[in-house]
From TrEMBL:
It comes from Triatoma infestans. The keyword Mitochondrion applies. This is Mitochondrial basic amino acids transporter. The chain crosses the membrane at residues 57-80, 180-199. Belongs to the mitochondrial carrier (TC 2.A.29) family. The keyword Transport applies.
């Protein structure tokens, strides 16, 4: 289980570094005033941020997901691994259930992290504070209610999203060891599928969490936000605003995340385990890991290449 958590942590950090710029574009498009739009589309938004705020503008708020994604992905992949072991591998249905449970649990960590991230991303010009400062200020004014603003929509989004995420990945890979290229492709498609399934709820969540930054709050709750947005914008088209940049971002982010996590778990499997040694030989059961030679690890790793796993 420890390997599940560690691999999820490292894989999540890699995914954030790859995908945060397009996440900033997504949030800007979702939250801009439709009556006086600043950006004409994803590409125009990207160029404008780069021109006016440089690369730092694209990475605004990155410290929040970077600090939180390790814990989030550790919870996601760790919970997923535990539920799968409970089902003893199981079928595609168990993959969905395991992913949904993981998504629900990580919402408690994800919601405050995304609140700080979104508020920093929406802020124009140079950021006046960091993610932690942002959360501290919210806590001082609104306590736990402010910190968990938008939590319900985070849970509504992430519970089915992670179910679809793991279901799609397992469907494409067949639960087998596949090549790195197939691994990346499956992870990318799984990420895109999960966003397509729940994107409208993410739009509502972003609007709720950015609401009240520069004045009184406009929305009473998620349902009121939905109704008011439909009324003001004359339809439902706003629910897909930023979807293109999200899908473009989702493929490389999840391709990297799944590949890093899977390879770390594969290398973990190569490490000798001693908990299955006979009880009459306890000295071998607790053999230190640093006694393993690099040659032994390298030789075992090559078996993956020989078996066509890469």
């Amino acid at each position: 289980m420890a390997y599940d958590f560690a691999a999820g942590c490292i894989g999540g950090c890699a995914g954030v570094i790859v995908g945060h710029p397009l996440d900033t574009v997504k949030v800007r498009l979702q939250t801009q005033d439709f009556k006086n739009p600043v950006y004409r589309g994803a590409w125009h938004c990207f160029k404008t941020i780069l021109k006016n705020e440089s690369v730092k503008g694209l990475y605004k708020g990155v410290t929040s997901p970077l600090a939180g994604v390790g814990l989030i992905n550790a919870v996601v992949f760790g919970t997923y691994g535990m539920v799968q072991r409970y089902y003893d591998g199981g079928n595609l249905y168990s993959q969905f259930i395991a992913g949904a449970v993981a998504g629900l649990l990580q919402s408690f960590i994800c919601s405050p992290m995304e609140l700080a991230k979104i508020r920093l991303q929406v802020e124009k010009g140079k950021s006046k504070c960091g993610s932690l400062d942002c959360l501290i200020k919210i806590w001082q004014k609104q306590r736990i209610r402010g910190i968990y603003k938008g939590f319900s929509m985070t849970a509504v989004r992430d519970t089915p999203a992670y179910g679809v995420y793991f279901f799609t990945y397992e469907l494409l890979t067949g639960g087998k060891h596949v090549s790195t290229l197939m691994m990346m492709f499956s992870g990318g498609i799984a990420g895109m599928a999960s966003w397509l399934a729940v994107y409208p709820s993410d739009v509502i969540k972003s609007r709720l969490q950015s609401d009240g930054m520069n004045g009184p709050s406009r929305y009473k709750n998620s349902l009121h936000c939905l109704r008011l947005s439909i009324k003001e914008e004359g339809g439902y088209s706003f629910l897909t605003r930023g979807l293109f940049s999200t899908c473009v971002r989702a493929f490389p982010v999840n391709a990297v995340t799944f590949t890093v996590v899977t390879w770390l778990l594969r290398f973990a499997e190569l490490m000798p385990t001693y908990d299955k040694q006979p009880l009459q030989q306890p000295q071998q059961q607790y053999k230190l890991i640093n006694h393993i030679s690099f040659k032994e690890l390298f030789t075992n790793s090559m078996h993956l290449f020989e078996d066509g796993a890469v």
